[in-house]
């Protein structure tokens, strides 16, 4: 599924990334509002990353990582900033706030129309000159990167889904029962708005979007990595196994011992492994 040693060797003869020294300068981050295909303003940040190249290498040859956060996250949350800092060692990073989150407009549809938000962020990464784009999603964002890749063929060069559900309407764990209360009840949505800075749409899905496990087979031949913790309190391990089985030979599963759920549980070491995988897979 990813490039073998021969492909990696060929890449290293032309592009030699290394970490920037503290005295080096690089372009400042860019922040803007993107406009989605359905008319929602999305707060987004582009950071050039810490990778620099020999002058003989073409500019922007390193990939751009587009990070899709989990439900109630946003581009300014500390756990999202940490993800961006680690991935910046491997390429540029685009972070953004899904609709209804942070400074973005609209209201959250909890993984449905959020594919438009991700599509806008991926297009913006391309506009910065990056030939390779990797989407990395966590929890709700993990389901969004799967559906986006299935519905938008060839817009991404590799996909990483962390702690994502395999199927909709799952209520098998206490955290997911609480989440369903938050989304479906007026008092829950009020708590989401004022307690969690997340504005949730009051209407249910109509029609029900393609489920993650249905989306996965449509991603091929784009490389796919599914990452999940064996102590995830939201989605037990049958979810990643279903996704991996649906992916077949074009997917890879990392079942992480002792890991919990999503961004908060993803260690810097795991994120570094994801960065290494992505650079090779998107080559």
From TrEMBL:
Keyword 4Fe-4S applies: no
UniProtKB keywords: Hydrolase
Residue stretches of biased makeup (Polar residues): 1-15
Lineage: superkingdom: Bacteria
Domain AB hydrolase-1 intervals: 63-164
Alphabetical list of InterPro entries matching this protein: AB_hydrolase_1, AB_hydrolase_fold, FrsA_esterase
Protein known as: Alpha/beta fold hydrolase
Organism: Streptomyces chromofuscus
């Amino acid at each position: 599924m990813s490039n073998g040693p021969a492909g990696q060797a060929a890449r290293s003869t032309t592009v030699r990334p290394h970490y920037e020294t503290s005295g080096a300068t690089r372009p400042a981050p860019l922040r803007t509002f993107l406009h989605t295909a359905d008319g929602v303003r999305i707060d987004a940040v582009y950071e050039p990353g810490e990778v620099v190249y020999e002058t003989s290498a073409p500019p922007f040859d390193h990939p751009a990582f587009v990070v899709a956060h989990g439900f109630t996250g946003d581009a300014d949350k500390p756990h999202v900033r940490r993800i961006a800092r680690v991935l910046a060692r491997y390429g540029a990073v685009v972070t953004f706030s899904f609709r209804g989150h942070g400074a973005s407009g609209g209201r959250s549809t909890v993984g449905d129309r959020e594919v438009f938000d991700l599509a806008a962020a991926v297009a913006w990464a391309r506009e910065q000159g990056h030939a390779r784009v990797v989407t990395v999603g966590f929890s709700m964002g993990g389901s969004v990167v799967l559906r986006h890749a299935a519905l938008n063929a060839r817009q991404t060069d590799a996909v990483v889904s962390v702690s994502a559900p395999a199927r909709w309407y799952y209520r098998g764990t206490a955290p997911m029962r609480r989440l369903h209360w938050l989304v479906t009840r007026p008092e829950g949505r009020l708590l989401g708005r004022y307690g969690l800075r997340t504005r949730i749409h009051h209407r249910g899905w109509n029609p029900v979007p393609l489920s993650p496990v249905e989306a996965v087979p449509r991603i091929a031949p784009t490389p796919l990595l599914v990452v999940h913790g064996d102590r995830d309190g939201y989605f037990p391990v049958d979810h990643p196994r279903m996704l991996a089985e649906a992916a077949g030979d074009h997917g890879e599963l990392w079942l992480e011992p002792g890991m919990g759920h999503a961004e908060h549980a993803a260690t810097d070491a795991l994120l570094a492994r994801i960065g290494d995988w992505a650079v090779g897979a998107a080559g």
